[in-house]
Amino acid sequence: MDLNSKGRLIHEAELTVEPVKFAELVAAIGTPTAGETASLVVWFGATIGGDDKLVQALDMDLSRALLSGQRYDWNRPFQPGETVRARLSVEEVTEKGSNHLAVILAEFRDASGELIQSQHTTFIERAAT
Amino acid sequence: MSVLKQGTTNEVTRVQIARFAGAVGDFNPIHLDDAFAAKAGLPSVIAHGPLTLALILDVIVAQIGADSIQSFDARLRAPVFPGDALTVVPSDVGVEVKNGADAIVAVASLKLGSVE
Lengths: 129, 116
Description:
The complex is a heterodimer of chains A (129) and B (116).
Chain A: E1 9-16, H1 19-29, H2 34-38, H3 45-48, H4 50-58, E2 65-74, E3 83-96, E4 99-109, E5 115-125
Chain B: E1 7-8, H1 14-24, H2 34-39, H3 49-64, E2 69-76, E3 87-90, E4 94-98, E5 104-112
Antiparallel strand pairs in B: 1-3, 2-5, 3-4, 4-5
């Protein structure tokens, strides 16, 4: 993992909360309250930019990497069909023993720039054996 | 967190994992390919971490509604496998989540309040 990648922009894009994808997420959760829950967790930071962009930005070995933490902060739920601006960046990269930790910040804003939700995703890259 | 009660998810299924992969575009073979998972030292594929978290959140949403949760900060402690049912147990600051073997797979703190 590149310990100098802190602050690096991974991806920035305008995205639509696709009703079809939203429905797929509801189906995956598969409960009576899945629609409500899906409105909170439409995306997560690691996938929005695609694995390649994330892996390249961090120089991370995906075969040794695991998701170790996730924080969601909501100002409001997502609405199916709405367009949002997503920005994904490297917030922190640290060493912990022989492992490396990276925190990715994903921010989602509406057309007026108001923050809808932020997500902090923590990856751990285990030491090579 | 006294506002919450203990709750349990349905068993995680392979179909559910595949559906989630398609919904979020995460096709990492560790979630879909047993042979790949075996090379990583796992007994089978594992659920996506965000799927695990979505299922935990769903237990909470079912009790208090999505509008009542302002933040959710989770640490994943162990992988979740097909067949696992997750028990969400209220703690002082949020929840602890256990699998069928009573092992903690995640802990999370919660901030509750009205979300517009």
